[in-house]
Amino acid sequence: MPFVKAGPNEFLLVGRRGALENRGSAVQLFLRPGTIWVLVPGTKQEATFEFTQETKDGIPLRFKGIVIYRITDPVAAAHQYSFD
Question: Could you tell me the residue ranges of all domains in the chain?
Answer without folding.
Answer: 3-78
